Amino acid sequence: MSGPIAGNGGKQQKSTRRLGGFSWFIIFAAAVAIVVAIIVFFGQGDPEIDKVAEQNETCKTKVLERLKSPSSAEFFGTPDNDGELITGEVDAQNGFGALIRSDYQCIIGDEVIVVDFIR
Length: 119
Fold this sequence. Notes:
It is built from 2 helices and 4 strands, in the order ααββββ. It is α+β, with helices and mostly antiparallel strands. The protein has a domain at 47-118.
């Protein structure tokens, strides 16, 4: 009930209504549902892109295993991956400590295998 309040200059006071515990629960549940929906919708990556990324990382690991100084390796750009062959470039120190740029190739089969370094 709202009406003039004494000492308020005759102005009417607006009633404020507070949300109860159940209302807060509904708002919280709706917010959680929206967040979960966003995660499910946007969180799923493209399996083909994930597969290519995994192949590229496996190839890099295999290249590192073949280098004389794997800690000096620096890969350039994104490797080309056509689904059967991965090619790329890597700088690494040779046995004499000189920094050499090499092209590498990995064949994609049941396993990713480093085929060759091409100078």
